[in-house]
């Protein structure tokens, strides 16, 4: 159990180096896109539930 396959370095217990950091605007766009996608899925399910076959 001691041997782990570490294919990436996550910086979970240390500060992220400046070169590896992402801009806040990029992360904000990702979160906004998640919100838009989720609302589109909910709208689609409501429209689909209201339609007759």
Please summarize what this structure is:
Keywords: Membrane, Transmembrane, Transmembrane helix. By secondary structure, the chain is an all-alpha fold.
- Helix/strand order, N-terminal first: H
Coarse morphology: elongated
Radius of gyration: 20 Å
Uncertain regions: pLDDT < 50 for 5+ in a row? none
Helix proportion range: 40-55%
Content-based structural category = mainly alpha
- Total helical segments: 1
Please describe what this structure looks like.
The model has no long low-confidence stretch (mean pLDDT 88). 51% of the residues lie in helices and 0% in strands. It is elongated. The chain has 53 residues and is mainly α. The chain crosses the membrane at residues 24-43. Keywords: Membrane, Transmembrane, Transmembrane helix.
